[in-house]
Specification:
Layout: H1 2-25, H2 34-38, H3 46-54, H4 56-77, H5 84-91, H6 107-129, H7 138-156, H8 166-191, E1 200-201, E2 204-205, H9 219-253
Antiparallel strand pairs: 1-2
GO cellular component, one term: plasma membrane
Main location: membrane
Organism: Methanococcus vannielii (strain ATCC 35089 / DSM 1224 / JCM 13029 / OCM 148 / SB)
Amino acid sequence: MTQKREIAVALSFVFFGSAIIYSLLNINVVGGVNYIYTQNYVVPNLVTAVLFDWRAFDTLGECMILVTSVLVTGMVFGRGLFGFEFLKDTYEKEQVKTTDTEDEFTSLVKVLAMPFSIILMALGISIILGGHITPGGGFQGGSLIAASYILSIVAFGCKSPIKFKHHFLEKLESFGALLFMSLGFLGILASGYYLLNLTSFSGYPLFFGPLGLENTGIIPYLNIAVGLKVLAGLSTITFLLTGEKVVKDYIIGK
């Protein structure tokens, strides 16, 4: 039976792979209405135009999905896990053994974890701030900064050099979401359309870009808002999950 299954899987790969290769070699791209949109976007790259200019409502909805995920995670694991001092005190107890990362990772991991975390954080910041020029932006940059925090947590546990307190994460997440929604009201004041990308307001440019680069309007600020939101949301979920592990290990140890 195992041999027949392997033959069936191999034939499936050959069939679908051949179909995909044939389609790629004989593809006929029809322009359709794409040229209409590509002639009217403000920012100098198409990816950011899609995310924040044509589909800003969809991006706002994705941010709200992340907010909901954080709320549900907090409800499931309990907001009491936000007590960082409690987790720190619990970590110091002798009963907690499985959260001690000194025996789980080699010194090489600990030596490299912090430099890589700093590199990821710097890369995330640059992607957020340059998202209106090159494909990238808030989601990618915020995820990278959160990944740097997660890498530090995995390597060092509660003794991680990178610490985001829960009050800071709460304020950061709220500020990012409110900033995104508030920027949409500029479009209402100017034209009646929510989240309309404006290059200027009352005659004043909203973003001072480098010489030779068109004014990208509110999109750089939307990138910053989304980056803060994603960074805080993913970090909060990680904080809750790692906190739950510490508490569980402490209870089992008792």
